[in-house]
């Protein structure tokens, strides 16, 4: 017992050493003048009102991409989640097909979708939005279907035995129980989208990320600093908002019966 | 959509149910949930199915609604076969069901829970009304009447999670009665209730005109019914008047 624990620790240390050796931490010691300038720029952000207005519009674009992306995800994910969830009693082949499709959609990272879509629909927020939508749909379909399956089956059975059809069972038995969880996952997806939308901008899919990449390429480090702060504020803001909404929507979850 | 339609008669003949999940490793007895159960109930008759846990009471109620597997035998509810997919919904919609502990969907208001067994009567306008927190028009008068009879008018706005066990049971009874059922089924309706609430729950069931089948493991509850059907290990061991003390003791004795 004790021996195997030491063995595990040793294996973990070897793994860590291997990982760190690939990171090349020695590069920290080779920081040159440009690195120092970049660091100073980030610490002294460009706060000119005109640039701030620009940043605000970039941030709005990122937010638009995130929201539009999650909205489109919903449209795709609702039918998929319903088909996948066992409680909907969809025919088996249809279920397998929906599960496969959802797996394929979420299996490809957003960044890869964005790269392809930028080539197809051109630079700008449309590519980013579609990338977020497609990947998010696959993810939401899986998470939602699990949420639909995890409801109290006895209450659902009671509705079914009362003679409710499929829509009745779903709307009166399953959804009321799953709703807080479904909404919570939706908000979480929105949070993820805001973060991802920033990354997607770097490959030219619009928003703060695109501006970030541009200022980096033009060595405008003060602007880079402003943009990094803007990303932080946006992400933190959306997180805070979503936490508040979640608390409100899930409020009745906490009143567990005695 | 007013008072109950005429009460429904029941015929169960040679019903055998084997649960598919049961493995051969378990004893023969527990493999078979019901063994050649036959039972006839006249329209309006009130009977109680008595037996200890695992005797097959719930399985019998499920069979009356065509739920769960069936090995052999026939079931007729008001002449309809609940195991025929074409007739199953008609049987279920003309039957009221009260499950153990109420089994209301948590996280909805009591009003929605009371309506949740009658969604086939809503229509598009009814669904729209429900979405706005109102009662679908065709059901409003009857819901008001039943809620008054069961004393739950004040509770309809409260979330199910905030109701006591007895209150839930009353809401569940309103739900079961809302469609004007000819047959009323209740599975252990007194489980988890204090004696006063349990007594009230049974009285409310007995006050209905529909044919009534109630399961219980409580001989005191059974004593309030004119007809007692005793199940032991999936077989009917008594069908008639109240059980004698000796019979009751045998029913609960370990094999």
Explain what the structure shows.
The complex is a heterodimer of chains A (258) and B (255). Chain A is mainly α and 258 residues long. Chain A contains ten helices and no strands. Chain B is of the alpha/beta class and 255 residues long. Chain B has a domain of 158 residues: Rossmann fold, CATH 3.40.50.300. Chain B is globular, with a radius of gyration of 18 Å.
Computed Rg of chain A: 23 Å
CATH architecture of the domain at 10-94 and 180-252 in chain B: 3-Layer(aba) Sandwich
| Percentage beta strand of chain B | 15-25%
CATH class of the domain at 10-94 and 180-252 in chain B: Alpha Beta
**How many strands of chain A?**
0
Number of strands of chain B: 9
Note the main sheet of chain A.
none
Helix/sheet category of chain A = mainly alpha
The CATH class label of chain A is Mainly Alpha
* Series of H and E elements of chain B: EHEEHEHEHHHHEHEHEEH
CATH architecture of chain A: Orthogonal Bundle
Question: Helix and strand string of chain A, N-terminal first?
Answer: HHHHHHHHHH
Estimate percent helicity of chain B. Answer: 25-40%
SS element count, helices of chain A: 10
The total number of structural domains of chain A is 1
In the CATH scheme, what's the topology name of the domain at 10-94 and 180-252 in chain B? Answer: Rossmann fold
Biggest interface, and residues per chain? A-B, 27 and 33 residues
Distance between the terminal alpha carbons of chain A, to the nearest Å? 43 Å
Q: Name the CATH superfamily assignment of chain A.
A: MetI-like
What structural class do you assign from the helix and strand content of chain B? alpha/beta
């Amino acid at each position: 017992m004790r021996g195997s624990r030491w063995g595990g620790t040793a294996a973990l240390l070897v793994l860590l050493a291997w990982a760190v050796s690939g990171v090349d931490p020695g590069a920290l010691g080779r920081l040159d003048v440009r690195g120092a300038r970049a660091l100073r720029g980030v610490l002294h952000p460009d706060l000119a009102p005109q640039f701030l207005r620009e940043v605000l519009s970039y941030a709005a674009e990122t937010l638009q991409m995130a929201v539009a992306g999650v909205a489109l995800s919903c449209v795709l994910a609702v039918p998929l989640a319903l088909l996948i969830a066992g409680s909907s009693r969809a025919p088996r082949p249809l279920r397998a097909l929906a599960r496969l499709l959802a797996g394929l959609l979420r299996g490809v990272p957003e960044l890869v979708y964005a790269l392809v879509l930028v080539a197809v629909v051109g630079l700008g927020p449309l590519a980013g939005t579609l990338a977020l939508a497609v990947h998010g749909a696959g993810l939401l379909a899986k998470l939602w279907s699990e949420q639909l399956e995890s409801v109290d089956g006895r209450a659902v059975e009671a509705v079914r035995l009362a003679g409710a059809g499929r829509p009745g069972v779903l709307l009166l038995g399953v959804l009321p129980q799953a709703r807080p969880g479904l909404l919570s996952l939706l908000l979480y997806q929105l949070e993820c989208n805001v973060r991802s939308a920033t990354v997607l901008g770097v490959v030219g899919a619009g928003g703060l990320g695109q501006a970030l990449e541009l200022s980096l390429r033009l060595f405008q480090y003060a602007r880079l600093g402003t943009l990094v702060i803007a990303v932080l504020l946006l992400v933190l803001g959306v997180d805070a908002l979503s936490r508040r909404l979640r608390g409100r929507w899930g409020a009745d979850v906490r009143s567990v019966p005695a | 959509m007013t008072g109950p339609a005429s009460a429904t008669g029941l015929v169960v003949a040679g019903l055998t149910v084997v649960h598919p999940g049961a493995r051969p490793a378990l004893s023969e007895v527990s493999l078979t949930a019901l063994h050649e159960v036959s039972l006839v109930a006249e329209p309006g008759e009130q009977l109680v199915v008595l037996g200890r846990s695992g005797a097959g009471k719930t399985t019998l109620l499920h069979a009356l609604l065509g739920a769960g597997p069936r090995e052999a035998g026939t079931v007729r509810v008001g002449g309809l076969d609940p195991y025929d997919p074409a007739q199953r919904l008609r049987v279920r919609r003309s039957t009221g069901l009260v499950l153990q502990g109420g089994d209301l969907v948590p996280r909805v208001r009591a009003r929605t829970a009371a309506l949740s067994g009658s969604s086939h009567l809503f229509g598009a306008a009814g669904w729209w009304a429900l979405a706005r927190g109102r009662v679908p028009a065709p059901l409003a008068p009857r819901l008001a009447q039943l809620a008054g009879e069961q004393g739950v008018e004040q509770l309809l706005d409260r979330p199910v999670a905030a109701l006591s066990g007895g209150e839930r049971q009353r809401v569940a009874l309103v739900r079961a009665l809302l469609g004007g059922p000819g047959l009323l089924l209740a599975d252990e309706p007194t489980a988890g209730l204090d004696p006063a609430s349990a007594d009230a729950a049974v009285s409310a069931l007995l006050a209905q005109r529909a044919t009534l089948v109630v399961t219980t493991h409580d001989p005191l509850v059974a004593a309030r019914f004119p007809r007692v059907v005793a199940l032991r290990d999936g077989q009917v061991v008594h069908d008639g008047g109240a059980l004698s003390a000796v019979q009751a003791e045998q029913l609960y004795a370990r094999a």
